[in-house]
From TrEMBL, chain A:
It holds the Pfam family FixS. This is Cbb3-type cytochrome oxidase assembly protein CcoS. The chain crosses the membrane at residues 6-26. The lineage of its organism: Bacteria, Pseudomonadati, Pseudomonadota, Betaproteobacteria, Neisseriales. InterPro entries: Cyt_oxidase_maturation_cbb3. The gene is ccoS. The keyword Transmembrane applies. Keywords: Membrane, Transmembrane, Transmembrane helix.
TrEMBL record, chain B:
This is Heavy metal translocating P-type ATPase. It is a multi-pass membrane protein. The keyword Nucleotide-binding applies. PROSITE patterns: ATPASE_E1_E2, COF_2, HMA_2.
Length: 59, 810
């Protein structure tokens, strides 16, 4: 049971830590646009450009 | 569907159109040169994936006229930029742009990629929800106009967003509210972790040292909630106290502070109960409700913000130079009286003035409600905000800025908004009394126990305050309003002021504006009376003659895919002439035909009804009469009769002429109508109704309606209307379906009954629980559970509104 001496303060500390993370995320605009980023994942930017692919094929 | 769809905008492509683009070794058709150019630009920059990813078609592209490009260049001017560009950085500038034409997430990708590749652009980030782009660039490497042109090249329009400062203030408040909510939520979860074991364990099972430790931990976690999260409640309670009112925030404040302070002695002494869990849960639930309400209101505001502005930002100014006159693009805000400006057909007149050259027809429907175009010649006055229909005119500006007619209407609007009658709200009235009684009961409880059992006096008083649950009472109204507002949005009705729903339920009279509200606001062909030849041929001739005109009457006669007539000349007097297959034809007002066409008039004209008559004539005969009339909106008649069945008085109030108004009123079965009303008379009419004890809902769309909209108990602006009427309206009817009004009324009444149920439940619960608590039978966990259960019940009841089936059911 002595572990509670550690665990209870730890839980309080943890909550404050999470609070700090929330504070950062609200401040840095993580909640500003809730729709866009979901779509952005689906759109790869690293694909070779279409024109490049096409000119290669044509040659 | 044999017709091909445009590759870019998916509009049908006319068979004669030849605008191909190549994409992935296939040839696709485009509907016009604009779409073709844009599709080519997108594919050439290697962003063709846009066409694979998009879920909605792009808007049809019209090639940018040269003067728009010139206007874009004006944005490079330092003085113009001062309003919307952040110039704080040495090597970087930042601006917010409002993007038009965004239809799906792929558009965002396309824009970000395209702008991001420009030399000198340091950052581009587009918000999908608000369609706003934040762009940072290096002024030494790229000019703002080049960025705007690049956006135009792929078919979007970017306009500087100059409300950025107001927006920044809102953002700050929003983020603060968000963080307050998070804090309360986190604390609530963790405090519950400490509280639940205590509730579940038998007394004495938990050793006193653990109990003490958990209580201290709870106290630490509750501290931010009491000091930070609840701050807005304290502020508004203090404001209420100063104004000698008793609002809902007063018992919230008293409850939070009392429960927290009353928990401190047990914490220090190690004996008795603590209420930290109740405090955190209580604050979290309340903040949650308020946050949702704030979001709903903001979403409604953002959607209307994107709609058009009335006065253009730029105009064409004539300036004297050494070698004669020169036309230059000029910001409207810098016009001075005496300046001469040119206004082309299809443009909006930028300021009040007098015509010094040219003759035209203008449409002042937005300002006066009069839907028929008005003839204006040299020395006639024109009003800023009216649209020029026929031919170019030169205007000498007489009034600018605050002195224009438009500005006068805006001032009238401001005054009307200040005097807006506020209904004493049901919840506020009840809660005001409730608060008073609650505080008295709490005081009496404390007094009684102080005399009989001083040790228990404070805990019992706190139990009374906690179990009394102002929570359910304060959630009762907002929860129902937010649920109903969300449901309305799915029916195309956006509400700026969620509590306007409460007022809507008590409406007795509905006042409609005519032009643009009950009618579409643009003439359509209603009847074609033949005098000579075949109807089909006459229709084709008319379409060919009118093909290039931007006059609203001409637009009603235009047909797709017809070849325009040759040598089209616009003649004064309301008509034009042109050659078709080498033969001359005339089209226009009967008086115009009499004056200009050699053909004899068939007497008498076989038409005498309402509407505008347009005559088509050849050199030898009058061929046909076209009767054009402003068409009623679809469902207008159905909506009006349904409203009358619901027991509402329907009025028609219009600035249009008597004959037209009577005709429309007759068609719709509206007995109370008034024609030729100015904005002042409209306002007067509504105020007279209100003085006789009626509650008015007003629907309108023009600038001239804005003051009336503001004065009515509840007002609704049409989505197709102008900006200023949206500002005055409590709600906006986005899809322009008049049946939406029926839905609104049905839902408003249902919302009112749900609010009443919620309030009744909250009062009943309190009536049962408070005596028990006052007698000392309630432990903290019962108080908390009771509070949570009653809040939950209220919210669930409100959620029934999102499934409400209302409106026009057959």
């Amino acid at each position: 049971m002595e572990s509670l001496y550690l665990l209870i303060p730890l839980s309080v500390l943890l909550v404050f830590l999470i609070g700090l993370i929330f504070w950062w995320s609200v401040r840095s605009g993580q909640f500003d646009d809730l729709e866009g980023p979901g779509w952005r994942v689906l759109q790869d930017d690293d694909k070779p450009a279409d024109t490049a692919a096409e000119t290669k094929k044509n040659n | 569907m044999s017709q091909a769809a445009c590759f870019h905008c998916t509009e049908p492509v006319a068979e004669t159109a030849k605008f191909p683009v190549n994409y992935r070794e296939q040839t696709h058709p485009c509907c016009c040169a604009g779409c073709q150019a844009i599709a080519q630009t997108i594919i050439d920059s290697g962003l063709g994936r846009y066409y694979d990813d998009r879920t909605d078609a792009a808007t049809q592209a019209n090639p940018l006229p040269a003067e728009v490009l010139e206007q874009i260049r004006l944005y490079d001017d330092e003085a113009m930029q001062r309003n919307f560009v952040d110039q704080s950085g040495e090597a970087s500038r930042e601006a917010h742009l409002l993007l038009e034409g965004i239809t799906c997430a792929a558009c965002i990708w396309l824009n970000e990629q395209h702008i991001g590749r420009l030399q000198g652009v340091q950052l581009v980030s587009i918000n999908y929800t608000t369609h706003r782009a934040r762009i940072r660039w290096n002024p030494a490497q790229i000019k703002l106009s080049e960025i705007l042109e690049a956006i135009a090249a792929i078919g979007y329009r970017a306009t500087p967003y100059d409300h950025a400062r107001a927006e920044a203030a809102w953002q700050k408040r929003h983020k603060q509210a968000q963080f307050r909510l998070w804090t309360a939520g986190l604390s609530m979860m963790q405090v519950m972790m400490f509280a639940v074991p205590v509730y579940l364990a038998e007394p004495g099972d938990i050793a006193p040292q653990w109990l003490l430790m958990m209580n201290w931990a709870s106290m630490l976690l509750t501290l931010p909630v009491v000091l930070y999260s609840s701050w807005p409640f304290y502020q508004s309670a203090w404001r209420d106290l100063k104004a000698r009112r008793a609002g809902m925030d007063l018992p919230v404040t008293v409850g939070v502070l009392a429960a927290f302070i009353a928990s401190l002695p047990p914490l220090l002494s190690g004996r008795g109960e603590v209420y930290f869990d109740s405090v955190t849960m209580f604050v979290f639930l309340l903040l949650g409700g308020r946050y949702l309400e704030m979001r709903a209101r903001q979403r409604a505001g953002a959607a209307t913000e994107r709609l058009v502005k009335l006065i253009p930002a730029f105009t064409h100014r004539l300036s004297e130079t050494a070698d004669g006159q020169r036309l230059e693009e000029y910001p409207v805000s810098q016009l001075r009286p005496g300046d001469r400006v040119v206004c082309r057909p299809g443009e909006i007149i930028p300021a009040d003035g007098v015509i010094i050259e040219g003759q035209t027809e203008v449409n002042e429907a937005l300002l006066t409600g009069e839907s028929t175009p008005i003839c204006k010649a040299v020395d006639d006055e024109v009003t800023g905000g009216a649209s020029n229909l026929l031919s170019p005119i030169t205007i000498r500006v007489s009034e600018v800025g605050d002195h224009t007619r438009l500005a006068a209407i805006v001032r009238l609007l401001d005054r009307a908004m200040q005097h807006k009658p506020r209904l004493a709200q049901l919840a506020d009235r009840i809660s005001g009394w409730f608060v008073l009684i609650l505080l008295l009961v709490a005081a009496a409880t404390w007094w009684f126990w102080h005399l009989h059992d001083p040790i228990h006096a404070l805990p019992i008083t706190v139990a009374v305050l906690v179990i009394s649950c102002p929570c359910a009472l304060s959630l009762a109204t907002p929860a129902a309003l937010v649920a109903a507002t969300g449901h309305l949005a799915t029916h195309g009705i956006l509400s700026h002021r969620p509590d306007s729903l409460e007022d809507t339920a008590q409406i007795t009279d509905i006042v409609f504006d005519k032009t643009g509200t009950l009618t579409l606001g643009q003439p359509a062909l209603q009847e074609q009376i033949m005098l000579h030849g075949s109807p089909h041929h006459a229709r084709e001739l008319a379409a060919a003659l009118e093909a290039t005109s931007s006059h609203p009457l001409a637009k009603a006669l235009q047909q797709e895919g017809c070849t325009p007539a040759q040598d089209i000349t616009y003649l004064p007097g309301g008509g034009l002439t042109g050659l078709i297959d080498g033969e001359p034809y005339w089209i226009g007002h009967p008086d115009f035909i009499r004056a200009n066409c050699p053909a004899p008039e068939p007497a008498p004209l076989p038409y005498g009804g309402t509407g505008t008559v347009v005559v088509l004539a050849s050199a030898t005969h009058w061929l046909a009469l076209f009767i054009l009339q402003d068409q009623l909106r679809e469902n207008a008649a159905a909506a009006i009769s349904r409203l009358q069945q619901l027991g509402l008085n329907v009025h028609l109030l219009s600035g249009d002429n008597r004959q037209t108004v009577e005709h429309v009123a007759g068609l719709l079965g509206i007995s109370k109508h008034r024609a030729a009303a100015s904005p002042e008379q409209k306002l007067d009419y509504v105020q007279k109704l209100q003085q006789s004890g009626r509650r008015v809902l007003m629907l309108g769309d023009g600038v001239n309606d804005a003051p009336v909209l503001a004065a009515a108990e509840v007002s609704m602006a049409m989505g197709s209307g102008v900006d200023i009427s949206h500002a005055a309206g409590d709600m906006v009817l986005l899809n322009n379906q008049l049946t939406g009004v029926v839905t609104l009324l049905a839902l408003a009444r249902k919302t009112r009954s749900i609010i009443r149920q919620n309030l009744a439940w909250a009062l009943l619960y309190n009536a049962a629980a408070i005596p028990l608590a006052a007698c000392g039978y309630v432990t903290p966990w019962i108080a908390s559970a009771g509070m949570a259960a009653s809040s939950l019940l209220v919210v669930m009841n409100a959620l029934r509104l999102t499934r409400a089936r209302t409106g026009m059911q057959k």
